[in-house]
Design a protein that fits this description.
The complex is a heterodimer. Chain A is of the alpha/beta class. In chain A, 32% of the residues lie in helices and 12% in strands. Chain A is globular. The chains are: A alpha/beta, B mainly alpha.
Chain lengths: 414, 545
């Protein structure tokens, strides 16, 4: 992690130039076509979401047999407590009602049995593999989105090319290309009792000089980003088109990602995570713990799509989770760690309104290790389709080392 | 230290310095003492203070020199003998710290559902709610007091190594404040489980966590029953319960063997069976551990190739004994300790020696620490400053470096500052706790938050924290900004500043905003010590320990 990207060299020069007045290189970056490149928003549901509740296979009789208290009722029009039908076999959890218009507008697609070829049921390992993009291999130093960022054209790259919302940079974005982690656009500035500009210039000089290590590299990025954000006025943008984000961390994350997209600061890859999915106990059905998490999740995604308006054409949102949960409910009306889970893909360029990947079935003999939903779509196949057809990264780029993409794509993107 | 022991160690030291990894493994490790170091250099003392404490306070290096580094280390390893009356006094402002779970449940109750209903329907205003259910009587207060206490001790306790180890073990056996009942159990968990064993024996600590309601609740074991069990009473009467694997899995992956420790899914299930019946009696009152035979799986179990004859409550204890004695556990714990005290990438030979100390002493934490602190890997000049301070370390070390004092209220503000930089005490949701690697903590957002904290501390804007920077530069003529800067660099960075940093800071002295000289004002300079000090605290060097 001591090597930093080429951008730093570029950024260092930019910082020098920026001391006197408006940073010319930033103005150039903001005006360049690059700033309007396609954007991938990756969302990690940490804790292993129960895909069978998020996307309910109501047409599979084994679903109801395995879940006596937590199954979602078969879709019944006008009954808000039942699942919301998608295609006669699958349905969305009723708390995801705000996503139904997106499904109907064919901007939302579903991959119901997606996951890792690795069998681990450890949250930590499975998240690590899904973020490194190398199931079963722990020594991979960087993440697949970090490698994807490195494969994007360096020309016109800005400090906001890859951004994670949160206080710590996630594994998935690590890599030589560098990435920004931040919790709040509004507070992304130097704050002092008096003359903050003096302190800002002082700190900036401290990190500009000296060895090229992790701290100095990060310091240089920091001030590039602070200045660019200010000149673009991103923090002042309020949600458009009447978008109403739910309160809470995840809604805030998506609201700020939308601000970055709309401010044209060169965002290409954004990452946000949302936790609370590890429902071992009292998972609930149409009401309860999981329903509350999904309500927040669906409302935030729907607000994001609305906020972006026409810009959704440039954006793909991909949701993922480290694994799914047991087909059968456990002794505490919850579910334990399982295997495949459902992933959602949302965006203007998505061939939505469709289910992707084969359904393996929930009958005991169809299950993985006789207990879990089997994986029929390797997560790398899905991720690779999106980096290839949305971010237009050449398909031969080794974003998933040691793995060869299948000859045909899922066809998820137009 | 006894003379023979010292002589033995001195005799062995050259071997250790030659990097002869096997040498110490043959020595009875319990007898090993920290290297006597009558003439430890200031640089060595500084390094030890950076790693074993929350950072040096003004004068600390000289104080350790007076006591002698070896003697100071022994005192830190035996914290009960260190007088900590000042901190204990300040903690008196936090009444929940000494309360029982039952008292906390009674005095800091969950919200009355009826009040919540009225508030939601508009029958009651938020103000009326606050009057009837005041914030200082809510359970959030318990967590806030704990956060304040942890920071207060980090900043002001004389038992610094103990505090570092409390942080280490809490993180190792992490529980999350916001999960259900845990907020009422946290106080007792840290006070009665983590703290007494922080420098004790790992197997004792492991056993204490396994039976505590905080862990039983956090990892759901309190709900795990034998397959087919159906409760006859209570809220779940008539509903079949069953196994819950959560604790069993994390016990092996995170508490003992490590994820590569060689266990299988079948082992997870068997361990979960062994712990059925380990539950919480009256979780919303005094919440005591209880073994309920009715929910226990009475069959034999087979764990890691060893069979466990059905023995009721003892099944779980046998699993704990098996795991605590497993060589993978020794290696896993050793690796984490070395990562904390030496480097993000633990030197394998040192990990092996620390693991040997674990095996030889049955998991004596002090014995393991002595091996770490005496090791050439720890003492090597190249090891200095390679660890990046995590947020709580950065905040506490800045407060200590400027010689600031804080009351309980200030400590809470400081804990919130650490949370803003990415590390809230008791706020890590996953059982892994917080990471202990630089790349997890260094990124633009949090670096900026560190700089902003440096500014608010130096400018005296942290409520409840008194920072008198004039003490750092006492005697220096503020009209001579170079002298002021020299004093600040010596006090805060102890000679660890790079030429570039010194040059940048010297250049600051040419700014009228720093010297407070205007173009028309040719009067004596009046250096802005706060602005300069903030730059030093926010510098790359101060982020390292």
């Amino acid at each position: 992690m001591l090597t930093r990207r080429a951008l730093l060299t570029h950024g260092g020069a930019c910082a020098l130039a920026a001391i006197a007045g408006p940073p010319p290189c930033l103005v150039r970056a903001a005006g360049a076509a690059e700033a309007r490149g396609k954007v991938l928003v990756a969302i990690f549901q940490r804790g292993a979401v129960d895909g069978l509740s998020m996307v309910v296979p109501h047409g599979d009789p084994a679903y109801y047999a395995a879940r006596s208290s937590i199954a979602l009722g078969r879709p019944r029009r006008g009954d808000a407590a039942t699942a919301l039908d998608l295609d006669g076999f699958f349905a969305l959890h009723p708390a995801l009602a705000p996503l139904i218009p997106l499904w109907e507008a064919r901007t939302l697609a579903v991959v119901p049995a997606c996951g890792s070829p690795d069998v681990t049921r450890s949250h930590f390992d499975a998240q690590d593999y899904m973020e490194s993009g190398t199931p079963g291999v722990k020594s991979t130093p960087d993440g697949w989105l970090g490698r994807a960022a490195g494969a994007l054209p360096a020309d016109g790259a800005t400090p906001f090319r890859s951004v994670a919302l949160g206080a710590r940079l996630p594994r998935v974005l690590r890599g030589d290309a560098g990435a920004l982690a931040l919790t709040s656009l509004e507070r992304f500035e130097v704050r002092a009792a008096s003359q903050p500009a003096v302190s800002q210039r002082g700190f900036e000089s401290l990190y500009r000089e000296g060895v090229r290590d992790l701290l100095h590299g990060t310091g240089r990025e920091t001030f590039e980003a602070v200045k660019m954000l200010k000149s673009a006025g991103a923090a002042r943008l309020t949600p458009a088109n009447g978008a109403d984000y739910p309160r809470g961390r995840f809604g805030e994350s998506l609201r700020q990602i939308a601000q970055l997209v709309r401010a044209d600061v060169g965002l290409r890859i954004a990452f946000a995570d949302v936790d609370g999915w590890d429902t071992h106990v009292g998972q609930g059905a149409d009401q309860g713990q999981l329903a509350n998490r999904l309500r927040d999740f669906g409302a935030a995604l729907a607000a994001f799509a609305r906020d972006l308006g026409d810009r959704l054409a440039d954006v793909v949102v991909l949701t993922m989770s480290e694994f799914g949960r047991t087909v059968a409910e456990n002794g505490n009306r919850g579910t334990d760690h399982g295997h495949a889970t459902a992933m959602l893909v949302l965006g203007g360029g998505v061939r939505g309104g469709r289910i992707y990947g084969r359904w393996p079935g929930l009958a005991p003999e169809q299950r993985f290790e006789a207990r879990d939903l089997a994986v029929t779509t390797d997560f790398r196949t899905l991720f690779h389709d999106i980096t290839t057809h949305h971010l237009t990264i050449p398909p031969t780029t080794p974003l998933f080392p040691g793995w060869t993409p299948p000859p045909t794509s899922l066809g998820l993107l137009a | 230290m006894s003379r023979p022991a010292a002589r033995l160690l001195l005799a062995l030291l050259p071997l250790a310095l030659l990097g002869c990894a096997g040498a110490t493994a043959n020595v009875p490790v319990a007898a090993a003492r920290v290297v006597p170091d009558p003439a430890a250099s200031d640089a060595t003392i500084l390094h030890v203070l950076q790693r074993l404490t929350y950072g040096p306070r003004p004068g600390d290096v000289a104080r350790v020199k007076t006591i002698g580094l070896a003697a100071w280390l022994e005192r830190q390893l035996d914290p009960a003998r260190l007088d900590d009356a000042a901190v204990e006094g300040a903690l008196g402002a936090l009444p929940t710290l000494t309360m029982s779970i039952a008292d906390l449940q009674r005095d800091y109750p969950r919200p009355d559902p009826e009040l919540q209903r009225k508030l939601a329907s508009g029958d009651m205003s938020p103000r009326e709610m606050r009057e009837q259910y005041p914030p200082e009587r809510r359970p959030a207060r318990i967590v806030a007091e704990l956060q304040a206490a942890r920071m207060l001790r980090a900043v002001a306790s004389e038992r610094q190594l103990q505090e570092v180890m409390v942080d280490f073990w809490f993180n190792h056996f992490n529980v999350f404040a916001a999960k259900g009942e845990v907020r009422w159990y946290l106080t007792a968990y840290e006070r009665d489980v983590i703290r007494p064993h922080a420098l004790g024996r790992f197997p004792d600590l492991l056993r204490a966590t396994a039976r505590h309601p905080a862990m039983l609740f956090y990892l759901d074991n309190w709900l795990s029953t034998r397959p087919g069990f159906t409760p006859r009473g209570g809220p779940n009467a008539g509903r079949p319960a069953g196994l819950n694997e959560n604790y069993a899995r994390e016990l092996m992956e995170l508490h003992t063997l490590g994820v590569d420790g060689g266990y299988t899914q079948a082992d997870v299930t068997e361990v979960a069976r062994a712990f059925t019946g380990w539950t919480i009696d009256r979780p919303r009152q005094d919440a005591r551990f209880v073994f309920r035979p009715a929910t226990h799986d009475l069959g034999d179990k087979r764990v890691l190739g060893r069979s466990i004859r059905a023995g009721g409550e003892r099944d779980g204890d046998e699993v704990l004994d098996l795991l605590a004695a497993h060589p993978a556990t020794a290696r896993f714990i050793a690796g984490k300790l070395v990562r904390r005290f030496v480097a993000d990438e633990p030197p394998p030979a040192l990990v092996e020696r620390v693991a040997a100390a674990y095996r030889d002493t049955g998991g004596d934490v002090r014995a393991m620490l002595r091996v770490v602190f005496a090791s050439p890997e720890f003492r090597a000049p190249a090891a200095a400053g390679v660890k990046i301070k995590k947020p709580s370390e950065f905040v506490a070390s800045a407060v200590r470096a400027v010689g600031a004092t804080t009351d309980a209220r200030g400590a809470l503000a400081l804990a919130r500052a650490a949370a803003e930089i990415g590390e809230g005490f008791y706020e890590a949701p996953p059982p892994t706790g917080y990471p202990d690697r630089a790349e997890s903590w260094v990124n633009p957002g949090t670096l900026l938050a560190r700089m902003n904290f440096a500014l608010s501390l130096a400018e005296g804007r942290v409520p409840g924290v008194r920072a008198d920077l004039s003490g750092l530069v006492s005697g220096a003529d503020r009209g001579q900004p170079e002298v002021v800067l020299q004093r600040l660099l010596a006090a805060l960075l102890h000679g660890r500043s790079s030429a570039e940093t010194r040059a940048v800071l010297t250049a600051q002295l040419g700014l009228p905003e720093i010297t407070r000289l205007t173009a028309d004002d040719r009067g004596p300079a009046n250096t802005d010590v706060a602005k300069l000090a903030a730059l030093v605290l926010g510098s790359p060097e101060f982020q390292r320990r």
